[in-house]
Design brief:
The protein is α/β, with parallel strands linked by helices. 55% of the residues lie in helices and 15% in strands. The strands form four sheets. The chain has a six-stranded mixed β-sheet with strand order 10-11-12-8-13-14, sandwiched between helices. A five-stranded antiparallel β-sheet has the order 18-17-16-15-19, with no helix packed on it. It has a four-stranded antiparallel β-sheet with strand order 1-2-4-3.
Length: 723
């Protein structure tokens, strides 16, 4: 793939697309990189870039969202790391650590979700993963952006001394404040802060009675601000310690900078990586806005854009709430040049620019708004000649400039070229310019280039009709309202509707006839024929559209009737089955009623039973025989069920038998004795023997000689009954 000329990028307004993409970027580097997007010169690099953007777009639709890629630019820090003995600021060091942390997060994420994002994973895998940068910065700087006390032993000692001195300053100041306040030398505000120092608010009349250094006075001069003498010594010591702290912090930062200096190139790679991620994100969000996707890219020479939208026009109309009409355009070796004709303001130029811009966007790694079944190939060059290119600086007229441009086309055009020419052949005498344009078109055709041109020239329409692999097309135009329909129709040339549009805009009919007489009758007839064909085609299209609608309605009605017929048939079958069943039941009921009546009269059981059995056998013979497999299955189920029942019965019998045997083995329970007062007894599980003194209900008081106790008679065993 060769580099596409800057003029093509300018003609197709790619820069406006890049500005819209840039607006979606979250970093300054990303915005700059988005504005510098240009067509890729290598196919493999382009395909990788498109896949990466497509994967980023897919991340919006699943739960595995790609981590945030925002970062603070570290260009100044990278420059400082390249200077010996230069020291990074705390903010710069934190930015570097945050950059490293963000990149590590992306690398971990893509390693985890390799299947979802294969090409983004490959990009991240090329970046060196390290935690040394983060750990080195975290060891020195806390999350509030302050150097930690334990960054060095000396810094920790200095800060301890600062804390002690600060306490002494506060104590000495509080003592002086209390002393002078009680003496009545201080104003009502008592104290304030000047140059980060606590000072006494002394009334001007007592300023000589307060020992210390005056640091200012109020606007009225009634108050003098004095630092007490007792705190000055500690203040000087505090200032010296602060200076030592700053020097130590600077030394620590310098040491940390030297640790990071070998990582300079890696940090630069980190920044480039996150910039690329920002651009991928912006392109994916832009694709969301325009319904962009990645069409199939084929190695065959073929372009088939289905329902393609011009992205700039689509977004503009979307804001206004207006409709944007998509176009379907197909180019292939057997149909490689399309000549679009028709009236002005019909959408010819927009169609031309839509095809060119979408192809240019795709070759720049940007997803495009087309139908998912769209297919296209890649071109080495995209050549454009669009708009009025009059050059005042070079004293070139429009036609001279276009001829110069055509010369460039002739030198560069080949089978891997897509050329787009708007208003081909205009700018000169229609006869001569048209003839030259016809010659150019023949050359482009012979070189097998793909191309789309727009024109009003009849000879170019006729040439496209004669060439086997070229095709005429026109933008559909409503002949009744003379309004554009913005739909590309392949296969027929379009009329300019010059006289019709003039008549609609109020030009007198006599002048239009006079104009018609001034040109060749053949041209008028040719244009009129085309206009007539367009009108007829429009009518045919309307008729076809109405027929399709009727056909669709008929299909829906047929479908509805079939469903209704199916439901009715199903109900009829159900009713028939119910009717047959009821008739059979009525017949059987009548039979049984007759038998019952006979039995009621003669009281004979044998004829009754015989007749009843005959009815049953007759009914059984009428029933359908069950399938052998079903009968076997049911028999098998019955056998299994019978076996299960037999097993359960056997288990129950065995359990009852065991219970009986157990009951036999157990001795018969002895009858409980009837206790009386004076009986000698003992506890069932005990050895001590006592005498029952009293009995009350089921309770007995047993006397053991040394003590008595109340016991339930159920727990006593008779040893000897009383006499």
């Amino acid at each position: 793939m060769n580099k596409i000329h800057q003029k093509t990028i300018q003609d197709l307004e790619l820069q406006k697309v890049l500005q819209q993409i840039s607006a979606h970027c979250t970093t300054d580097h990303g915005k700059e990189a988005a504005l510098k997007i240009s067509p890729f010169s290598k196919e493999d690099t382009l395909m990788t870039n498109l896949s990466q953007t497509n994967e980023y777009l897919a991340s919006f639709e699943n739960n595995n969202r790609i981590p945030n890629h925002y970062f603070e630019a570290v260009d100044n820090e990278l420059r400082m790391l390249g200077i010996e003995n230069a020291v990074l600021s705390i903010e710069g060091l934190r930015s570097v650590a945050a950059l490293s942390s963000s990149v590590n997060g992306h690398i971990d994420f893509f390693r985890k979700f390799t299947e979802y994002y294969p090409t983004l994973f490959k990009k991240a895998e090329r970046i060196y993963y390290t935690r040394e940068i983060i750990e080195a910065v975290d060891k020195v700087i806390d999350r509030f952006g302050e150097v930690k006390d334990n960054a060095s032993d000396e810094l920790a000692e200095i800060r301890k001394r600062i804390a002690v001195v600060r306490t002494r300053i506060n104590q000495s100041f509080s003592s002086a404040l209390s002393s002078y306040a009680s003496a009545g030398y201080l104003d009502d505000i008592r104290e304030t802060v000047i140059d980060n120092k606590r000072v006494l608010a002394v009334k001007a009349m007592y300023r000589k009675k307060v020992k210390g250094a005056p640091l200012g006075q109020s606007k009225t001069g009634s108050i003098v601000y004095i630092e007490p003498e007792v705190t000055q010594m500690y203040t000087r010591e505090y200032q010296e310690l602060e200076l030592e702290e700053k020097e130590e912090i600077q030394r620590i930062l310098k040491e940390l900078t030297n640790i990071l200096r070998p990582f300079k190139n890696l940090i630069a790679q980190y920044q480039v990586f996150l910039t690329d991620m920002d651009v991928f994100s912006a392109k994916a969000r832009y694709a969301q806005d325009i319904n962009g996707l990645l069409p199939e890219i084929t190695s065959e020479r073929k372009m088939h854009f289905i329902e393609a939208f011009h992205p700039l026009l689509y977004l503009t109309n979307k804001e206004k709430g207006e409709i944007t009409y998509p176009q379907t355009v197909e180019l292939e070796p057997e149909k490689r040049i399309i000549v679009i004709s028709g009236p002005n303001a019909g959408g010819k130029s927009i169609t031309l620019k839509t095809v060119g811009l979408l192809q240019l966007m795709l070759q720049s790694g940007i997803l495009i708004p087309v139908h998912e079944r769209s297919v296209t190939c890649l071109f080495d060059r995209i050549l454009t000649d669009i708009g009025d290119n009059q050059s005042i600086e070079n004293h070139l007229s429009t036609y001279s400039y276009r001829l110069k441009n055509m010369n460039y086309f002739l030198r560069k055009c080949n089978e891997k070229t897509l050329f787009l020419i708007d208003e081909f052949g205009t700018g000169s005498d229609p006869e001569l310019g048209g003839a030259l344009a016809e010659t150019f078109l023949e050359v482009f055709y012979e070189r097998e280039a793909f191309g789309i041109i727009t024109t009003h020239y009849a000879n170019l329409k006729m040439l496209a009709n004669d060439l086997p692999y070229a095709i005429n097309a026109n933008m559909l135009f409503d002949s009744k309202t003379l309004q554009p329909v913005f739909k590309l129709i392949l296969g027929e040339a379009g009329s300019s509707f010059t006289f019709e549009v003039a008549q609609k805009n109020g030009i007198p009919y006599g002048l239009i006839n006079k104009a018609k007489k001034k040109i060749e009758r053949g041209k008028v007839r040719f244009d009129a024929t085309i206009a007539k064909l367009q009108k007829e085609r429009s009518q045919v299209r309307q008729t076809s559209s109405s027929l399709r609608e009727e056909e669709a309605k008929t299909r829906e009605e047929n479908k509805r009737l079939e469903e209704l017929n199916t439901r009715i048939r199903s109900k009829l079958e159900s009713y028939q089955e119910l009717y047959d069943h009821n008739q059979r039941m009525i017949y059987l009921g009548n039979k049984i009623n007759d038998i019952a009546e006979k039995y009621f009269i003669n009281k004979k059981k044998r004829p009754l039973i015989s007749e009843f059995l005959r009815i049953v056998e007759t009914e059984n013979s009428k029933r359908k025989k069950e399938k052998s497999e079903e009968r076997k299955a049911r028999k098998k189920e019955q056998e299994i069920a019978q076996k299960e029942v037999s097993r359960e019965i056997k288990e129950i019998r065995q359990r009852k038998k065991k219970e009986k045997e157990t009951a036999k083995k157990q001795p018969a329970a002895k009858p409980r004795p009837v206790f009386k007062v004076g009986d000698r007894v003992r506890l069932i599980d005990g050895r001590a023997i006592g005498t029952i003194d009293t009995l009350e209900k089921n309770k007995a008081i047993v006397n053991y000689g040394m003590f008595t106790t109340e016991v339930s008679t159920d727990k006593l065993d008779l040893v000897e009954a009383s006499k």
